[in-house]
């Protein structure tokens, strides 16, 4: 198959143009058609010659994603289930905040990390997405927001899959959507979440980018984390936190720890104090996430007052923490849940 035009960073596109006898400045024009005017065919690029458009069409695909289903929550959250060219399904979510519209993107078809609370791992990993397939999710979300004259202001890479296991495509995606000739989404408005691929955290820190980094932590000790997240056996908590400290010291930037609250599992005051002991020396923010119920998993929601008590305990210990506002609680909001439902229906 031909590569997606959305796979290519601006500098790489300039190089391709030069190698194919075209002026490099045309790359900016192509980016404008793709990401500002958001056309869906090369034929629409009217300031390019017919021969040049035919050359582009012979070398690249401009194919988007096919919509399988769309769910709209009462709070304005929109969840899309898209079909890829090979029939695999992926999820993308638009979340509305008082600071703008955030899009949560998927980086893999399925996931092999095996977190015991997550619907994304059901069925395992099928394949990585290309950079262009990740970019296309943001474009599809932007086209949906175009109908209300709104824009994507923030992106979170927290959908299905482990982003750091698709590292090169992830980096291409980030720099494509960040480019000021295209979607122009600021680096500090983009957050990448990892379950803890330790070597890639060091590489991420050394890159000295301004993208935000979040760590899916979910436990205050290594024993409990190994139960919740099998990745902890390969990259133990001690090594993960050492990598986090390296990131903070190298970049001077704050790191976010995501902590899902699971009723009767990791949500007691004792757990909160243990968490404060664990990360108290790190410049960090804790994002407390009341768990979304997933039928295929056994975890239950932490009672409301216990969530507040956990939060108060962290604050008393000097830990900067917030409780994440719920999005899409009246739809299949849990990551991977809509895809899992679709897979079941297809199997029938």
TrEMBL record:
<keyword id="KW-1015">Disulfide bond</keyword>
<keyword id="KW-0808">Transferase</keyword>
<feature type="domain" description="Radical SAM core">
    <location>
        <begin position="97"/>
        <end position="330"/>
    </location>
</feature>
<dbReference type="Pfam" id="PF21016">
    <property type="entry name" value="RlmN_N"/>
</dbReference>
<comment type="similarity">
    <text>Belongs to the radical SAM superfamily. RlmN family.</text>
</comment>
<dbReference type="GO" id="GO:0032259">
    <property type="term" value="P:methylation"/>
</dbReference>
<keyword id="KW-0004">4Fe-4S</keyword>
<dbReference type="InterPro" id="IPR048641">
    <property type="entry name" value="RlmN_N"/>
</dbReference>
<feature type="binding site">
    <location>
        <begin position="161"/>
        <end position="162"/>
    </location>
    <ligand>
        <name>S-adenosyl-L-methionine</name>
    </ligand>
</feature>
<keyword id="KW-0819">tRNA processing</keyword>
<feature type="binding site">
    <location>
        <position position="118"/>
    </location>
    <ligand>
        <name>[4Fe-4S] cluster</name>
    </ligand>
</feature>
<dbReference type="InterPro" id="IPR040072">
    <property type="entry name" value="Methyltransferase_A"/>
</dbReference>
<feature type="binding site">
    <location>
        <position position="292"/>
    </location>
    <ligand>
        <name>S-adenosyl-L-methionine</name>
    </ligand>
</feature>
<keyword id="KW-0489">Methyltransferase</keyword>
<keyword id="KW-0963">Cytoplasm</keyword>
<keyword id="KW-0949">S-adenosyl-L-methionine</keyword>
<feature type="binding site">
    <location>
        <position position="111"/>
    </location>
    <ligand>
        <name>[4Fe-4S] cluster</name>
    </ligand>
</feature>
<dbReference type="InterPro" id="IPR027492">
    <property type="entry name" value="RNA_MTrfase_RlmN"/>
</dbReference>
<dbReference type="Pfam" id="PF04055">
    <property type="entry name" value="Radical_SAM"/>
</dbReference>
<dbReference type="GO" id="GO:0008168">
    <property type="term" value="F:methyltransferase activity"/>
</dbReference>
<dbReference type="InterPro" id="IPR013785">
    <property type="entry name" value="Aldolase_TIM"/>
</dbReference>
<feature type="active site" description="Proton acceptor">
    <location>
        <position position="91"/>
    </location>
</feature>
<dbReference type="InterPro" id="IPR004383">
    <property type="entry name" value="rRNA_lsu_MTrfase_RlmN/Cfr"/>
</dbReference>
<feature type="binding site">
    <location>
        <begin position="216"/>
        <end position="218"/>
    </location>
    <ligand>
        <name>S-adenosyl-L-methionine</name>
    </ligand>
</feature>
<keyword id="KW-0408">Iron</keyword>
<keyword id="KW-0698">rRNA processing</keyword>
<dbReference type="InterPro" id="IPR058240">
    <property type="entry name" value="rSAM_sf"/>
</dbReference>
<protein>
    <recommendedName>
        <fullName>Probable dual-specificity RNA methyltransferase RlmN</fullName>
        <ecNumber>2.1.1.192</ecNumber>
    </recommendedName>
</protein>
<feature type="binding site">
    <location>
        <position position="115"/>
    </location>
    <ligand>
        <name>[4Fe-4S] cluster</name>
    </ligand>
</feature>
<dbReference type="InterPro" id="IPR007197">
    <property type="entry name" value="rSAM"/>
</dbReference>
<keyword id="KW-0411">Iron-sulfur</keyword>
<feature type="active site" description="S-methylcysteine intermediate">
    <location>
        <position position="335"/>
    </location>
</feature>
<feature type="binding site">
    <location>
        <position position="193"/>
    </location>
    <ligand>
        <name>S-adenosyl-L-methionine</name>
    </ligand>
</feature>
<comment type="function">
    <text>Specifically methylates position 2 of adenine 2503 in 23S rRNA and position 2 of adenine 37 in tRNAs.</text>
</comment>
<keyword id="KW-0479">Metal-binding</keyword>
């Amino acid at each position: 198959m031909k590569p997606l035009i959305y796979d290519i960073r601006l500098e790489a596109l300039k190089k391709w143009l030069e190698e194919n006898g075209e002026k490099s400045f045309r790359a900016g024009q192509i980016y404008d058609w793709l990401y500002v005017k958001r056309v869906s065919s090369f034929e629409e690029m009217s300031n390019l010659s017919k021969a040049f458009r035919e050359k582009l069409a012979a070398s690249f695909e401009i194919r988007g994603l096919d919509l399988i289903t769309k769910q709209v929550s009462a709070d304005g959250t929109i969840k899309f289930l898209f079909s890829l060219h090979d029939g695999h399904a992926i999820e993308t979510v638009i979340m509305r905040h008082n600071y703008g519209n955030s899009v949560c993107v998927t980086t893999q078809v399925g996931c092999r990390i095996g977190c015991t609370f997550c619907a994304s791992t059901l069925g395992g990993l099928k394949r990585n997405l290309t950079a262009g397939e990740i970019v296309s999710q943001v474009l599809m979300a932007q086209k949906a927001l175009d109908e209300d004259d709104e824009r994507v202001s923030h992106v979170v890479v927290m959908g299905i899959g482990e982003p750091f296991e698709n590292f090169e495509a992830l980096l291409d995606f980030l720099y494509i959507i960040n480019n000021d000739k295209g979607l122009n989404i600021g680096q500090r408005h983009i957050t990448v979440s990892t379950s803890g691929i330790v070597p890639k955290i060091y590489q991420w820190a050394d890159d000295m980018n301004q993208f935000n980094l979040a760590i899916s932590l979910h436990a205050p000790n290594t024993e409990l984390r190994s139960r919740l997240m099998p990745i902890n056996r390969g990259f133990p908590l001690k090594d993960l936190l050492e990598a986090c400290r390296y990131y903070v010291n190298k970049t001077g930037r704050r790191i976010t720890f995501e902590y899902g609250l699971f009723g009767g599992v990791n949500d007691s005051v004792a757990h909160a104090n243990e968490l404060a002991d664990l990360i108290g020396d790190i410049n960090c923010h804790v994002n407390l996430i009341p768990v979304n119920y997933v039928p295929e998993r056994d975890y239950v929601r932490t009672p409301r007052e216990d969530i507040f008590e956990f939060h108060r305990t962290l604050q008393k210990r000097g830990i900067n923490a917030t409780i994440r506002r719920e999005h899409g609680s009246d739809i299949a909001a849990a990551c991977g849940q809509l895809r899992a439902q679709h897979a079941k229906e297809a199997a029938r």
